Amino acid sequence: MMKRRSLLSFSTSMLVLLVMVKALVAQMPVVVSNGHELSKTTESKSSQKSCFSIVNFNPVNEMIWTGIIDSNWNNTENWDGLRLPVLDDNVTIPQGLTNYPTINIANGGDCNNLIVEPGASLVVASGGSLITQGDIFNYGIIDIKRTIPGNEWHMIAVPNSTTTAAIFMGNYLNYFDESTAYWIEILDISTELIPGRGYALWGTNDTATYSFTGIPNTGNQNHAFTAENQYGLNLLGNPYPSSLDWDLVIADQQNINGAVYCFDPTMGNRGQHVAYVAGLGDCRYIPPQQGFFINAVNSGTFNLLNEHRVHINSSNFYKNRELPDNYLELNVYENEQLMDKLYFRFNPDATEYFDGDYDAYKIPSYPEFEFYTVSLDDKLSIDQQPECEEVQLGFYSEDAGYYNIVLNEVTDFTEVLIYDTKTGYYHNLAVNDYEFMWETNDDETRFKLLLKTLESNFTSTYSVICENDSVTFFPDTLAVMPDSVFWSFPGGYPDFSTEMHPLVEYPEQGVFEVSLTVFWQGNSATNSKPEYMLVNAIPEAPAKPFGVETVCYNQYSSVYTTNSQDVIWELSPPASGTINYYDSACQIIWDQNFSGEVSLKVKIYNGCGEGEFSEHLYIQKLEPSNAEFSASQTVFVTQPYTVQFTNLTPNPDNFGFFWDFGNGGTSTEVQPEYTYPENGEYSVILKATNITTACTDSLLMENYIFCSGVGIGAEMMSGFGYSVDQTEKILFLKFIETPENKSFRLYNQLGNLQKALILSQDNQSISLSNLTAGIYFFVIDNKISGKFILAR
Description:
This protein is mainly β and 792 residues long. It is built from two helices and 68 strands. Among the domains are: 324-453; 458-536, Immunoglobulins (Immunoglobulin-like, Sandwich), CATH 2.60.40; 550-621, Immunoglobulin-like (Sandwich); 643-704, Immunoglobulins (Immunoglobulin-like); 712-790, Immunoglobulin-like.
């Protein structure tokens, strides 16, 4: 058995042995890497997750570095196969060469297994990138370099497991304790720096290049995290000599929110944390040896796989990204210095509150300077939420002064306004930056962001037209002038158009949709209005009017209806009555002197004209029954008061009759006789109801029967009574109480004054001898009145 020698005493015989081993490996089952161990594998299950899975035997290629031209790894002429290695190639860097490879550029070097023979070396320069799919056998020197500017904070990590704090001797090195949210300085230079953990470094020199010598990390890397503090901030690090793609990393994590937070030392006075989540931000690609924060929800393990590694963005931090839709980035400057930034986007899958999958918190900086959006009590550096018109911003600086808010990037928003509640001023950031004066006692929520996205509103010359009319359509260009448009006009001619202001004819009636799609700066928006166009035709004739067709002579009015609203009614002959109003119902006020046949018709009108009249409705306005009667006697002086009524109504056999004698007495006889039981004055009504039509006419004779004579004063009413002596022609007045100079006036039925006296006795007799026969009235003190008949 050969003794194990140190690397410093590596001999030519060992080189021969390595060549023999390589030949044997080519005949053995494929060797794959599982973390840091080697195992022989002939097959793999689809459910197994390792650095690599081999389904069928695929021999790897062997490539050897020659360095014939120079030390550039990415020069194909420096390789024995005259091509660059890929992830399926095993690479050997042999000893005894003049030029050894250096990886300088960001897209760097790839290989499967990497063997560095004794005396050989590999340098990954600052900004370079190395991805190994398999294992690394280092018998020479592998040197990973990182150049870091001094006099500012950087978040760093180590690319191997053999680095101690001594590499940063003379500088300040801290780690972050999540449970207390404190920075803890590392004072012992022998402290081993843990792969996967992040550290904060303050370089005391202007710029320094650090060399991490040893076997670079490859394969799975795990690091535990905690969630004891409010935000669960854990400072982790990229343990690989290549970048990490956070979109690939976050897909394999649990118990953390979706955002990653990197530190940009060039922002603000002493740097700012910049975030990335769900396509927004500056930190998707985490460079080699870069530290970063995560936001833990619960304690757990952070898992990194070879599949998470990429060559992108190793030398130029944070800049390689595509701009999403409905997105903007706002920056704040003090003079020419970028102080802070925030990102905002409309995302229909997000909510207006903090979303772990879409939003990022604002991590404070020192000295304190913050620019953020407000979500309830949270400050956000990345805010995605459903579409809205107003966003509350937050701003704070320890230092008073002049600052500028700059719209750095924007997609889809057609209007971006900043509203300064302190000044009451609205400013369009799409036109130019907004400069403002900040005082330390200003309200942090001083600013609001007002947004509008691309819309496709439109108007037209008309939206209600007639058949064969034409309409011109206009897109809303108040916010932006579209680059192009596409119109759709179902039912119109043409039925589509790309003209900005199309003229469209509608040949047939109906209700039609109009839609417009506008295109602007690579974006589009569509607006469809389902019932926008109402196309009318000249209306058809409505239904025949509905209502009574026989109207009694004395009926005051009748109501008729049709099946349409906007109508015109016509009554013929016009003298038969008047139509009270126009609508789907009309009321005819009948002329009480008219009888005979009338016709009623109706037609519909709209903005296109008047339609044809409906079918006529013929109405018979009946003639009156001409109810008439007379009485055998209408004035009675003495009892009995018996009256024989004579019915004078024509064709009495066609009617039923009803008599009302004015005192509650009634009769249904054709020719009734009635005796009034007591004196008084009575009105008489005769109602004649047509047996066929049920129409009723009536005749009222007011105060038609008068019953008076001797004995009227037999009863005293209200302290007063009177009687007439028809033989002596004397009027007797009797008072219970003696009247005191009461005035008495006597009138004939024409209202002419016949006598005027002053009454002062209980019993008073007034001579009527000079009066002719007739009806007379008297009034006493304008309070007492009476009526009597003076016979011949």
